[in-house]
Amino acid sequence: MANLYLIKALAESKNIPITQLAQAVGVSEQQIHLMVRKNSTKIETLEKIARVLNVSVSVFFDEDTTEIRQAGRDYVEDGKIEHKGTEYNGPVTIADEALRAENERLKEELLEARKEIINLMKEKR
After folding, report:
1. How far, in whole angstroms, is CA 85 from its chain's centroid?
2. What is the DSSP string of 112-123?
3. Considering all CA atoms of the chain, what is the largest pairwise distance in Å, rounded to the nearest integer?
4. Using one digit for the tens of pLDDT, what is the confidence trace for 15-29?
């Protein structure tokens, strides 16, 4: 089930006024308030809202992720971020390590491909 109540919370957290969000999406401010209140809208509209808010559409549907966020959220007060709930750091750290390793592998492939292109260009001359 969708959780469109997050639209207002996300817009507020990103300092995007509802009027600006509505304008960017191509609907009226009243329509935004109505879809949040009724917790219903077309998927196309939700996709536009997600794009403007720079989030995945799944944010509005993923109840497990919402619960995790509430249990282990980052609290921002006076410009300082304090993380509460370290029990959720493990999977993120593992994902970060996997992404770093993949990034390094791709860099190496790119360097090898670059060398090969340079050699081919030299041979062609």
Report:
1. 20
2. HHHHHHHHHHHH
3. 68
4. 999 999 999 999 999
